[in-house]
Design a protein that fits this description.
Layout lengths: L1 H18 L1 H23 L3 H20 L1 H20 L16 H13 L1
Helix pairs in contact: 1-4, 2-3, 2-4
């Protein structure tokens, strides 16, 4: 029964993601416009160019707000990702992955704790 629920959730999320593909594309273009506006605003030195690039960034933000269904598409893509992870019995973790250290003292402490058991 658990697999059936995952299948229904995955199919529903996939349909929602495909239905919002245009909004996702618009959201991506809006993000690109906002990024360009901020980048060139920080690089410009004249007041006229700062006003121009700030207005470009604001237009990009307004365009992003108009693409609200794109946010639902992002949530649907996250839902599909979750279903695939659960279907393959992989753990779903939103924390940062643990990084193995090459520091000899950290490895010594870990090995000492293993030997002390």
């Amino acid at each position: 029964m658990k697999k059936f629920g995952l299948l229904v959730l995955g199919i529903t999320a996939g349909i929602v993601a495909l239905a919002n593909l245009g909004s996702l594309l618009g959201l991506g273009v809006s993000a690109l416009i906002v990024f360009a506006g901020m980048h060139f605003y920080l690089k410009s030195e004249s007041t006229f160019l700062k006003i121009f690039w700030a207005s470009v960034g604001i237009i990009g933000l307004l365009s992003a707000v108009a693409n609200v269904p794109g946010f639902f598409g992002i949530l649907a893509i996250v839902g599909v990702w979750y279903v695939v992870k659960k279907w393959n019995n992989e753990s779903v973790s939103f924390s940062a992955p643990s990084v193995k250290s090459d520091d000899p003292f950290v490895n010594f402490e870990k090995q000492w704790n293993e030997l002390s058991k």
